[in-house]
Design the sequence.
């Protein structure tokens, strides 16, 4: 059965899995729940592979199919249209593949948790929405997926809903995302108004016409404003400055959730959206400049916070924010292919890192503070090796995956005409910091003396369901970048070539001078990573204790007090406004007041009118006469009124 | 000032004076007698207008039956002079203005449409409507209401009997 | 010839006096007599119009009014007798059981 004709199967299977588990899973045993959850995701992955095979066999023609009309209003149509091109292929395989591995991992990790079926139901629901987002052929359907993954993020962050911090974190994620979504929607409205359609094909064709001029830098034309608004949505969803605050708090959720949603797939939706809209962005250099600056600043900013964190998952969270900054930097300087490449390698090594961290936490019986770990390398060997692979990858050492992707990004940044050198410098600095804090994590966790009580914590290796995916991801972290390996030696970059039908051939390398520059820059990158490693080795490999926190350390440890700043500047005024204006004045005063006022008015009228019923017969007689006068007045009015207003006839 | 006009004013003055007396008298029997005077005056006015049958009926039925009934009831109930209670402020202060408003409105209406009230040629000649004419109308055009009134009187009689029974 | 207007004005005056008596008197029989006065005023108007238009319809209606007034007087006085016996007073202001 041709999968390509029936692309809807790919998202539908996880949806069915979610529904069945959600409705009936409470009564079923764990193996049954597992088989439904894993089965639906696994078959979805196989279908995705098959779809890719058909796509490639068909000559890699972009495929688009409209399945049914969803919104038809006048000349506007938004349908359930799915498409497949090279960009979708990458995203599809990453989402289904990494998603499937994490599902397997979760069966081991969540084995002792309550609400088992609910977890898998939510996880499958997330897969459904993410796949809709990736396969969508118009902005409206993409937004459905966008919102849906936000919902699943909320559900999964607050999975341990009896914990207040988890519930608060879920709410924070959803609300901050909503701010971004507002910008996204405004962007969509603007696009609709300009192009009268929200289909990718229509919008991008209309935007690529020769008469649509590239808007000059510094000017805020329609496309620039639309792209900036869309980027606001990406800022919210992909946790960039200033809307990144929800991602560290999202670590309240179970570790597989952090791995899947907040590392590999959901947070990359913003990058995917920007890459998908590259036609619009290339016509709005101002917007791209903003994207590059925001990405670069976030990369550096988050790396500085990650330097001093003590919770192992928080380090990885800030690392994710930082790496997403790199992806946006890539898109901002025009290297969309490099950004997507980094997205793919990041999915591999970040999922690996999170899952390994989960394995460590599982081994330590729930402990997440690195200062209470130490000397674990001999006890949990498999986890240690996998985590090491991930760390080497993220630091950017060759031949691991991220070396190629980070290198491509930094090279493209260096060549960017508007202050590219500065962007390169900051990016390089962030790479140093990345290497430093990741190796700090390794040394604190796995080396040195053990800083925990052996009697309370029984360190044990994780079961095969957890270590299996770890090893697969470790392999991918090593080999995932080898598409671009030939480029290092002056041959083709296969990945960029694969994506060139989507992004245009401008990605391919330049002449000889560019080649040697790229070589120099890659060597500089490796040197930088090594520097970070050495400093971390120097500071943390020997026996260390937690020190006091003061000065700059305190500032960084408290995340620059950004959350407190937001609470004071945004949250408190809004709550004040809500309480004192919207509640007391509008709701209680005006709305309740109106309703009560009507009742009070009726009572007042009754109070006045009841005086006619005095019980005194003579006053009744008077009312009779009054009534007679009224009736007579009505009857005589045609005769009388000239007398009242005019003269005598 | 022709004779009819003088007679009119005499009778009209009598009627008005008697009505005022009805209001001002304290004992109901005096009010009843004043009302009889009003009715006789009106009967005179009907005669002046040429409606002799109506005048006769007025005297016989109204003056001879209804007012006698009133007098009987006053005597039966041993009505005395009126009590001077005054519980209704509304009636005290609103009464005169309202009555003036009412009659003023009617008078204004009459005055406004006076041009349309020219007397018809037949009446201007002093022709009087005969009883025969009246009975033709009553028993031909208005026979249905006429029969109904007999029914009405029957009900009134029954009602009066039931109401005025002493408890047995 | 007496103009019709004069009769109509007289009718209006008598009606107004009837209303005054209706509002101001306290004896229930007197109030009833005021009603009779109002009816008479109306009768006068009817006959005046009948004469003005030359048709006898107005006089027929006067007959009906007199008939109805008689029937009404009979029943009304019956009710007055009962009420007077009940409340032991002919003062209409003493009939105040509906007062709070």
Sequence:
């Amino acid at each position: 059965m041709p999968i390509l004709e029936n692309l809807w199967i790919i998202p539908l299977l996880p949806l069915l899995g979610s529904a069945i588990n959600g409705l009936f899973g409470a009564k079923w045993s764990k193996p049954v729940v597992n088989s439904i959850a894993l089965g639906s995701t696994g078959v979805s992955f196989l279908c995705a592979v098959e779809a890719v095979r058909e796509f490639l066999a068909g000559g890699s023609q972009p495929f688009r199919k409209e399945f049914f009309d969803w919104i038809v209003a006048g000349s506007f149509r938004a349908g359930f249209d799915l498409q497949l091109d090279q960009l979708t292929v990458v995203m599809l395989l990453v989402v289904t593949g990494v998603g499937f591995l994490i599902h397997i991992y979760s069966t081991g990790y969540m084995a002792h948790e309550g609400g088992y079926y609910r977890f898998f139901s939510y996880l499958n629901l997330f897969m459904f929405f993410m796949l809709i987002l990736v396969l969508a052929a118009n902005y409206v359907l993409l937004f459905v997926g966008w919102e849906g993954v936000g919902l699943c993020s909320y559900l999964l962050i607050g999975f341990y809903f009896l914990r207040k911090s988890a519930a608060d974190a879920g709410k924070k994620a959803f609300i901050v995302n909503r701010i971004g979504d507002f910008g996204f929607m405004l962007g969509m409205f603007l696009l609709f108004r300009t192009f009268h359609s929200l289909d990718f094909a229509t919008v991008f064709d209309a935007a690529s016409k020769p008469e649509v001029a590239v808007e000059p830098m510094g000017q805020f034309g329609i496309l620039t404003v639309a792209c900036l608004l869309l980027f606001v949505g990406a800022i919210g969803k992909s946790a960039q400055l200033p809307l990144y605050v929800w991602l560290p708090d999202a670590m309240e959720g179970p570790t597989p959730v952090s791995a899947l949603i907040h590392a590999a797939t959901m947070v990359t939706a913003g990058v995917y959206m920007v890459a998908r809209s590259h036609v619009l962005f290339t016509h709005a250099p101002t917007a791209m400049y903003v994207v590059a600056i925001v990405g670069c600043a976030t990369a550096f900013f988050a790396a500085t916070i990650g330097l001093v964190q003590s919770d192992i998952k928080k380090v990885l969270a800030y690392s994710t924010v930082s790496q997403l900054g790199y992806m946006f930097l890539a898109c901002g300087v025009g290297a969309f292919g490099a950004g997507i490449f980094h997205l793919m390698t990041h999915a591999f090594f970040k999922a690996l890192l999170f899952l390994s961290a989960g394995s460590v936490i599982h081994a330590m019986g729930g402990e997440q503070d690195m200062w209470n770990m130490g000397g674990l390398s001999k006890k949990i060997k498999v986890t240690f090796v996998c985590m090491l692979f991930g760390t080497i990858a993220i630091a950017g050492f060759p031949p691991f995956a991220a070396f190629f992707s980070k290198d491509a990004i930094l090279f493209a940044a260096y060549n960017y005409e508007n202050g590219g050198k500065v962007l390169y410098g900051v990016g390089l600095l962030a790479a140093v910091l990345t290497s430093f804090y990741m190796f700090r994590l390794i040394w604190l966790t796995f080396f040195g003396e053990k800083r925990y009580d052996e009697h309370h914590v029984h360190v044990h290796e994780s079961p095969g369901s957890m270590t299996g995916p770890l090893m697969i991801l470790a392999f991918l972290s090593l080999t995932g970048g080898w598409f671009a390996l030939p480029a290092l030696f002056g041959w083709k970059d296969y990945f960029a070539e694969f994506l060139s039908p989507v992004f245009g051939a401008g990605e391919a390398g330049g002449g000889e001078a560019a080649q040697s520059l790229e070589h120099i820059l890659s060597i500089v990158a490796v040197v930088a990573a090594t520097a970070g490693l050495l400093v971390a080795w120097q500071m943390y490999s020997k026996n260390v204790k937690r020190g006091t926190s003061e000065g700059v350390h305190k500032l960084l440890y408290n995340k620059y007090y950004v959350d407190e700043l937001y609470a004071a500047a945004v949250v408190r005024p809004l709550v004040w406004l809500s309480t004192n204006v919207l509640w007391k004045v509008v709701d209680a005063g005006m709305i309740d007041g109106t309703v009560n006022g009507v009742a009070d008015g009726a009572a007042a009228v009754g109070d006045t009118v009841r005086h006619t019923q005095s019980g005194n017969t003579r006053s009744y007689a008077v009312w009779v006469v009054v009534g007679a006068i009224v009736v007579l007045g009505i009857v005589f009015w045609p005769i009388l009124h000239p007398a009242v207003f005019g003269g005598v006839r | 000032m022709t004779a009819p006009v003088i007679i009119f004013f005499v009778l009209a003055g009598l009627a008005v004076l008697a009505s005022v007396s009805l209001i001002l008298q304290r004992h109901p029997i005096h009010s009843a007698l004043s009302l009889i005077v009003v009715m006789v005056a009106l009967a005179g006015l009907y005669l002046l207008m040429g409606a002799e049958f109506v005048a006769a009926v007025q005297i016989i039925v109204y003056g001879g039956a209804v007012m006698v009934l009133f007098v009987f009831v006053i005597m039966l109930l041993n009505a005395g002079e009126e009590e001077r209670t005054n519980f209704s402020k509304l009636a005290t202060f609103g009464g005169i203005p309202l009555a003036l408003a009412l009659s003023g409105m009617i008078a204004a209406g009459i005055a406004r449409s006076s041009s349309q009230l020219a007397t018809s040629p037949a009446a201007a000649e002093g022709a009087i409507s005969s009883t025969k004419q009246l009975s033709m109308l009553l028993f031909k055009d208005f026979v249905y209401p006429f029969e109904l009134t007999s029914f009405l009187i029957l009900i009134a009689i029954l009602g009066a009997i039931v109401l005025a029974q002493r408890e047995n | 010839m007496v103009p019709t207007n004069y009769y109509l004005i007289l009718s209006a005056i008598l009606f107004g006096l009837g209303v005054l008596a209706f509002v101001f008197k306290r004896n229930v029989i007197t109030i009833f007599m005021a009603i009779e006065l109002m009816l008479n005023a109306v009768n006068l108007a009817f006959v005046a119009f009948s004469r003005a238009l030359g048709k006898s319809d107005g006089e027929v209606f006067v007959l009906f009014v007199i008939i109805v007034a008689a029937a009404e007087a009979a029943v009304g006085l019956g009710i007055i007798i009962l009420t007077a016996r009940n409340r032991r007073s002919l003062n209409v202001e003493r009939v105040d059981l509906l007062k709070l």
